[in-house]
Amino acid sequence: MAIPVFFVENPDKSDVLSADDSFHANKVLRLKSGDAIYILDGAGKKFRAKLLVSDARKSTYSNIILEIEEKTNKNLLNLWIAPTKQMERMEWMVEKCTEMGIRSIGFFQSKNSERKEIKIQRLEKIVISAMKQSKQLFKPQLNPIISFDDLLKKLEKSFELKGFAYISENNNLTIRSFANMKQESIALIGPEGDFTPNEIIKLNSHGFKGFSLGNSILRTETAGILTCASFNLSN
Amino acid sequence: MAIPVFFVENPDKSDVLSADDSFHANKVLRLKSGDAIYILDGAGKKFRAKLLVSDARKSTYSNIILEIEEKTNKNLLNLWIAPTKQMERMEWMVEKCTEMGIRSIGFFQSKNSERKEIKIQRLEKIVISAMKQSKQLFKPQLNPIISFDDLLKKLEKSFELKGFAYISENNNLTIRSFANMKQESIALIGPEGDFTPNEIIKLNSHGFKGFSLGNSILRTETAGILTCASFNLSN
């Protein structure tokens, strides 16, 4: 059997697996005290450790034995998206983006938004599971939903390249050339009803450039996936 | 209200909407006799027509009034994939690939395949719905599941560029450079358990080149989406 992988935030300060992981290790994988495990810290490091206590509620592991791998984060995309009505579509997108690799995913509420709430905790679980499954060393940061205006304020002083998905006949900036600049970037994906003209004026005045995702009319989550794929392919 | 869009195969030989579309037109959209509709033939053409009889079981439309749009198919990717255990994942992939644009999607069964059956009819509905939603003029062809060996035989005499997704340290052909050749292509995505060494030898001897999808370990359906995205972005 392949050595099982667990996620622990700040593993140097902890020697306990989460309740879910403890259950999984003990009841599903039937691991025993002394079994080898891998720990991902979600910040670029992978460690090898040993289970000390295998318990369905609280498993502990030994001090980290060996650092196996360390990487720097090459994921350049910070995605902000207006969430879809069906939460399932966002969950799928978050899973796919995590698998491909992404720096952060956040949500905003604009004029035509269809959803005002996001349960970040459920998405966190999806992120961690996809991260372990795809052996990503970096856990994408999830940012809770904020208003469009607050988002612009929040990003005002950031130095990243800024863009937003925009369908227009005379749009020369493709997502491909945007991603090819190979800088840390912020990309906004509007709701199904799109950004309003007023929001686009605000975006422009805040230094955001509209990029095109091609000629197809994509669902919101597909636009998010294609944007992420495009950064992934430019790496 | 935007003019509603319907799909009719060979609309020049028919003047009837499908049973599903008739119901949708009559009961959901509440269209009346005389209302304007668009017809997509899925082969590059969009027509304007007029409803003659609006009936929940059998709606008919007038001879086609006007050809609105005609395009040639620029989708170069023919995807063949080993379907996942959870059919939902394939359905999602088919929807996303249709939105982005793809020439055909087919299924094969190899040594490590997790699923031996595919209900093409259900996928057809998803394809048509995604096609209408994204205003694609081309309906991707869906090919029923066949065995790995039959697939190789079937593709033996085809002139398309042939590749398969393959994770290897020393793989120099990226999906990006594969897609950038801008030729009609066949891309095979293996099952979660991957192709067997024996299958890879067969692929090589049949002229298939292994391409890399990057360093992440992707789920089957994510590999399909990333392959499709990469062709879409090279257009």
What would you say this structure looks like, in words?
The structure is a homodimer of 235-residue chains. With 235 residues, chain A is of the alpha/beta class. Chain A is built from 7 helices and 11 strands. In chain A, the strands form 2 sheets. In chain A, strands 8-7-6-10-9-11 form a 6-stranded parallel sheet. In chain A, helix 2 packs parallel to helix 3 (120-133) and helix 2 (87-100) runs parallel beside helix 7 (220-234). Chain A is elongated.
Largest interface: A-B, 25 and 25 residues
What topology, given as strand order, has the largest sheet of chain A? Answer: 8-7-6-10-9-11
Rg calculated over all Cα atoms of chain A:
20 Å
Low-pLDDT sequence parts of chain A: none
The helix/strand series of chain A, from N terminus to C terminus, equals EHEEEEEHEHEHEHEHEH
- For the secondary structure, the number of strands of chain A is 11
Shape of chain A: elongated
Oligomer: homodimer
- How can the largest sheet of chain A be summarized? 6 strands, parallel
Summarize the entry for a quick read.
The first copy, chain A, has helices spanning 19-28, 87-100, 120-133, 148-155, 175-180, 197-205, 220-234; strands spanning 5-7, 36-40, 45-53, 60-61, 66-70, 77-81, 104-109, 141-147, 161-165, 185-189, 209-211. Chain A has 235 residues and is α/β, with parallel strands linked by helices.
